[in-house]
Every structure is written in structure tokens, then in C-alpha cells.
Write a structure and sequence with these properties.
hydrolase; disulfide bond; Immunoglobulin-like; elongated; Glyco_hydro_b; binds 2-acetamido-2-deoxy-beta-D-glucopyranose; Glyco_hydro_27/36_CS; TIM Barrel; eight-stranded parallel sheet; about 35% helix; alpha/beta; six-stranded antiparallel sheet
Length: about 450
């Protein structure tokens, strides 16, 4: 082959590689962030049904949670998936090499449980592991991806959380997750695929997020969430530190997963619960609650079911937000929304003192330019409040409790053009803004 022919081929290949869009996993699912309930953080590996029948990992737990989800407005609010985590299977596969549920704790089996969920208009999630064992030591799927995918599909499972423990060599992680993705696709049933691939690969190298986005519907990046403020801030800090890498890959079909919502449990104050909800919504995160819906306080329930927050979460533009400023013990996070709107969260990270006020000015928030000429501001948290129409020059303040968050939605509105003196003032503001570099 001549050199010129070779270079012509290179050009063609180069061009086609350039114009081929990077496509997220196409199974028709997770077009907006997944909403549901997942047992792990609250119920862990409690398998002692003799002494703790109310809280042990058994079919009864998921059925009761499903009943409450329908009865108490969770389903109506959008929470749909009821998800099993680790510790559901029997320690041994059946005679045909299939996973089977622990017969004592799941006497009806998983298919019956899936049927139960579907009869209520809900969906069932299950858990397995890419390696030889699950994290709690139950049988893993390595070497059984095809049969396990087929079994889950036959049972009518709707979501698979695929953990990353006990992979004999970390270099096999990518291959394992990709193989399972293919195995799920081959079943012909659309099964939402929740991965932990990057979390396990980060210990060794920076994961390939393009490949991850093509393989999974969401992916855990960082450590398990605990029922504590320290854990929530750890996740936020990690996310902000890696945002230039992970935010661009999120979108319809594939999302970064900062782990479960722990709202309604024991460790977060009311303000901290609002911060978790506001920031999970800004991060376009799956909203998978891990709490006891049979016994949850009304304040937490109202927060988790807040329709303004859920509509930000499920915004059709499907863009993840990021941290855009860090100033004076405050953090500002923003998420672009459909219709040119913006969700804006101001966290008070100072853990001492009382409520502090944060001025919404062009100097602190260049995105406040969306208020040129005018914008309509609605506060969602800490309480709903329509703040009216504002401009670049409005003196707007939000008051934020320590460890709490103010969440606003800012919508551009058409206004009258500025008068000459206003325009002059505007130029002055912009100039002043340039001289302040509090931007990240
Ligand atoms: C399998 O993958 C193909 C190609 O991406 C896609 O069109 C199809 O919908 C997928 N099927 C399922 C069941 O996920
Ligand atoms: C993935 O699938 C390929 C092709 O079938 C196979 O060669 C490889 O061993 C599999 N890897 C894992 C970790 O299952
Ligand atoms: C990452 O994965 C994508 C998709 O599989 C691939 O095209 C690309 O070459 C990979 N990048 C690196 C640096 O390995
Ligand atoms: C945040 O995301 C926007 C796009 O939505 C981008 O323009 C901006 O540079 C990002 N900011 C930071 C600090 O990464
Ligand atoms: C501002 O937004 C609120 C809440 O969505 C709405 O009720 C109000 O009509 C809006 N005002 C204007 C001028 O657009």
C-alpha cells in the first residue's frame, strides 16, 4: 500500500472517530437520575431474622417498604425502584449453577418479589459482584456473568447494583464490568446497570470515564456514605475536587453516583439533611434513599418528597452541576436547568456561630449575569419563598445556617432595556468583577 493511500485512510479514520458521538449506554433507562430505595446504609447485612425479624434482610422488608412507598406518597413523588443490596443470596448456587435467594429469608424467591413490586407499579433492584465473592462474602459473579444476567432477567429484575469486591486482579475490573453490561444487554430485558467500577479502580489509576459511561447507567466514584455530616462533606469535597473529570460525562443514560440519601436516619441535623438533598439534586445524583420508610419523621419525609427539589433532580436538560465558588466559609454550587434556568446552592460550611448572610452579587457570582436584564428568583430551601424579579443591581441576600444550604432557582425574564445611567453602572460592575478573583 502506498504512503499516500495510508495517510488517506488515516484521515478517514481520524475524521470518522472525530464525528462518531460518544454514546452513553443505550438501554433506554436512567434518562433522568434514578429514584428509589436501597437497603444498605440503614439495614446493612442484618440477617438475624430470629432476633430482629422487623429489620433483617428478608422478602418481608422489601414488601413492607413497597407497601409504604405506595401508601405514603413516595411512589407518587417519583421513587420507583426498591433495591436489594448485599446478603440476599444463599451461600451456594443451585444444581444448575444459578444464584438463589436464601430460602429461609426469601421463601417466595426473587421472581415472586419482582412480581409483587410490578403489581404495585414499582420496580425491583438486585445486587451482585464482579469478583469471586460479594463484599459480605456471598457468591460473586466472576465466571458466571451470562448465567447471572439471564437469571436476573428471568426473575423480572429491573436494576442490578454490581459491586467490585474480590476481583483477583484489579486490571480485570474494566473487562468484568463491560462483560456484565454485554451479558445484561444479551438477555433482551432492559436492566438498569449500577456500577462501582471507578470506586475500585481509583485505588490504582484514574478510570476511563468514557468507557464507564458507555457501560453503566450510574457509577459510584467514592467511599460508601455513612449516616454523618463528615461523610456527606467528604463526598462533596471529593466530587468538587474531581469535577472537571466527572461532571462532563454525566447526562441522560449515565450519572455519577455519590451514594445513598441518609435523610430520615440518626446522624444528620435538619440543616444537614437539607444540604444533602440540595446537593444531591445539584449533582444530578440518583436519589436512592436508605432509611426506614415505615417509621420516618414528617420533616424528613417532606424534604425527600419536596416536588420543587425533585423537579430540579429530574430536569430534562440532564446536566450535572458543579462547585463554582468558595468564599468566606461558603460554597456556591450551580446546576444549569432547562429553559435557561439555573439552580444555585449556597452552603454555609462554617461549623460555628449562627446563620450568616451571603450576598448574591455579580462580584461573587459571575453567573448572576443571567440576571441581565432581569431574573425571577425563587428560594426552594430552607423554605419556599418567591423572591420576585431582580436585576444585576439588586441587593439580594440569603441567610444560611451553619452546615445548612440555601437553594434558589433563577429564571431569566425579559425586561426593559437599561437606561443610560443603568448601563453605565453595569459596565462599572463588570470592571469591578474582573478585579476580584474568587472564582475557582
Ligand atoms: C442492547 O444494545 C443495543 C445497542 O446499544 C441497544 O440498541 C439495545 O436497546 C440494547 N438492549 C437492551 C435490552 O438493553
Ligand atoms: C470478558 O469477556 C472476554 C470475551 O469473552 C473474555 O475473554 C474475558 O476473559 C472476560 N473477562 C472477564 C473478567 O470476565
Ligand atoms: C477510554 O475508553 C474509550 C471507549 O472505550 C476508548 O475509545 C479510549 O481509547 C479509552 N481511553 C484510554 C486513555 O484508554
Ligand atoms: C462548571 O460548569 C460550567 C458548565 O456548566 C463550566 O462552564 C464551568 O467552568 C464549571 N466551573 C468549574 C469551576 O469547574
Ligand atoms: C416567578 O416564579 C414564580 C415561581 O415559579 C412564579 O409564580 C411567578 O409567576 C414568576 N414571576 C415572573 C414575573 O415570572
Amino acid at each position: 500500500m502506498s504512503g499516500s493511500m495510508l495517510s488517506a485512510i488515516h484521515v478517514i479514520l481520524g475524521v470518522s472517530a472525530f464525528i462518531l458521538p460518544v454514546r452513553p449506554l443505550d438501554n433506554g433507562l436512567a434518562l433522568t437520575p434514578t429514584m428509589g430505595w436501597l437497603h444498605w446504609e440503614r439495614f446493612m447485612c442484618n440477617i438475624d431474622c430470629d432476633t430482629d425479624p422487623h429489620n433483617c434482610i428478608s422478602e418481608k422488608l422489601y414488601m413492607e417498604m413497597a407497601d409504604v412507598m405506595v401508601k405514603d406518597g413516595w411512589k407518587e413523588a417519583g421513587y420507583e425502584y426498591v433495591c436489594i443490596d448485599d446478603c440476599w443470596p444463599s451461600m451456594a448456587r443451585d444444581s444448575q449453577g444459578r444464584l438463589q435467594a436464601d430460602p429461609k429469608r426469601f421463601p417466595g424467591g426473587i421472581k415472586k418479589l419482582a412480581d409483587y413490586m410490578h403489581s404495585k407499579g414499582l420496580k425491583l433492584g438486585i445486587y451482585a459482584d464482579v469478583g469471586t465473592n460479594t463484599c459480605a462474602g456471598y457468591p460473586g459473579s466472576l465466571g458466571h456473568y451470562d448465567i447471572d444476567a439471564k437469571t436476573f432477567a428471568e426473575w423480572g429484575v429491573d436494576l442490578l447494583k454490581f459491586d467490585g469486591c474480590y476481583m483477583p486482579k484489579w486490571t480485570l475490573l474494566a473487562e468484568g464490568y463491560i462483560n456484565m453490561s454485554r451479558a445484561l444487554n444479551n438477555t433482551g430485558r432492559s436492566i438498569l446497570y449500577s456500577c462501582e467500577w471507578p470506586l475500585y479502580e481509583w485505588q490504582f489509576q484514574q478510570p476511563n470515564y468514557t468507557a464507564i459511561q458507555q457501560t453503566c447507567n450510574h457509577w459510584r466514584n467514592y467511599a460508601d456514605v455513612f449516616d454523618s455530616w463528615n461523610s456527606v462533606t467528604g463526598i462533596l469535597d471529593w466530587t468538587a475536587d474531581h469535577q472537571s473529570l466527572i461532571v462532563p460525562v454525566a447526562g441522560p443514560g449515565g450519572w455519577n453516583d455519590p451514594d445513598m440519601l441518609v435523610i430520615g436516619n440518626f446522624g444528620l441535623s435538619r440543616d444537614q439533611q437539607q444540604t444533602q438533598m440540595a446537593l444531591w439534586v445539584i449533582m444530578a445524583a440518583p436519589l436512592l434513599m436508605s432509611n426506614d420508610l415505615r417509621d420516618i419523621d414528617p420533616t424528613s419525609q417532606d424534604l425527600l418528597q419536596n416536588r420543587h427539589l425533585i423537579s430540579i433532580s429530574q430536569d430534562p436538560l440532564g446536566k450535572q452541576g458543579n462547585r463554582t465558588a468558595k468564599v468566606n466559609g461558603f460554597e456556591v454550587w450551580q446546576r444549569p436547568l432547562s429553559g435557561g434556568r439555573l439552580a444555585l446552592a449556597v452552603i454555609n460550611r462554617q461549623e460555628i456561630g449562627g446563620p450568616r448572610s451571603f450576598p448574591l452579587t455579580l462580584a461573587l457570582l459571575p453567573s448572576w449575569r443571567c440576571c441581565n436584564l432581569q431574573c425571577n428568583v425563587t428560594q426552594i430551601l430552607p423554605q419556599y419563598q418567591e423572591m420576585g424579579v431582580h436585576s444585576l443591581f439588586s441587593k439580594l441576600q440569603v441567610l444560611v445556617n451553619p452546615t445548612g444550604t440555601a437553594l434558589l432557582v433563577v429564571s431569566p425574564v425579559k425586561g426593559k432595556p437599561y437606561t443610560r445611567p443603568q448601563a453605565k453602572k453595569w459596565f462599572y460592575y463588570l470592571k469591578k468583577d474582573k478585579s476580584q478573583s474568587i472564582l475557582l
